[in-house]
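Researcher: Sit down with what I've pasted below and flag anything odd:
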Amino acid sequence: MLAKRAKEEMDGGRSRSGVAPAPSPRDTDEFERALDTFAGVIRLLGRYSLGAGTEQDDARQLCEKWARHLLVVGPRPGDPPEVKGSARRDWQGLSQFVTSLRRTESETVGRSMTTLRETLAEFLAGLRSIVTEDGRAEQDVQLQIERLRAAVASDSLQELKSEALSVSGALAQVVEARKRAQLTVMQELSGRVRDLSRELDQARKEGAQDALTKVANRLALDEYISKVVGLDGLFGKATCLLMVDIDHFKRVNDSFGHPTGDDVLRKLGDVLSRTFPRKTDFVARYGGEEFAVILRDTGLREAAIPAQRLLAAARGVTIARDGGWSISVSIGLAQLAEGESTEQWVAKADRALYEAKHQGRNRVVEAK
């Protein structure tokens, strides 16, 4: 009945005799319900169009106009603005519109599937490379990848989804296993780095230490004194330098031999370390039988006190031969002056040391 009524509208609403038949009330109700249903279907096509963005909005608007055209015989999509409507419904135009809409959607789906397959193919190629990058491909993941590759080539979205989830699960297991392996390797490397760091620190200390006396060597002294002059000289801090020399050390070597002389140097190095125990006190072997001590945050009057203690402690170093023989030291003491260079400071302490020797040794002389 609906098809007959629609055909009559397409024919101009007249029968072969040229006289429009009078529809029955039942036919009219049936036709109106069919129009409402048909208009609802057209609106659903627009609402759930497979387009995206602007395309979907356009399809929704066109479907809405066609639905109004069916219901109230309003203007069709594309009619000029001045057209208020027509005397009959354009069933043929509606059919062409629906056909075009579905064809467009079908092409969109086809392009999307093609793009999806191409993207998954690239993903699989990269995935295979990642899985095998360490030279040991996990067999389970490789099997899942091959099954996903087969699903990509098929037309089954359900199969594609299922295989993609399987690959995801297998990959998660691989990633977790590799994380554990990497954590183990990192822990081992961390331990090796700590050991190496300790070895380097020990080597650095040994490299800055005089092998015989176990106090700092001349290289370490030169580096440290340069820093002290730069910092304490800049901020005007009181800092003193002691130059310490063993009296008549050549006589010790000549009389008792160099092994005995080395023993005296070792004992004096120990005495120096015990006499100047502060962390800021720096004790070094300057060369031969001469030592240097840097006392930071210490003025001449304060530095003279441990210097006198050193004189007494040095006399306690004895040589147990020929009835016993004690040594003594001479000390030159100099405070860093403002604007003074390293060389000037050391030379000033050396002059004080020479004066101590000149005055009879076994004494402390402060630089003027």
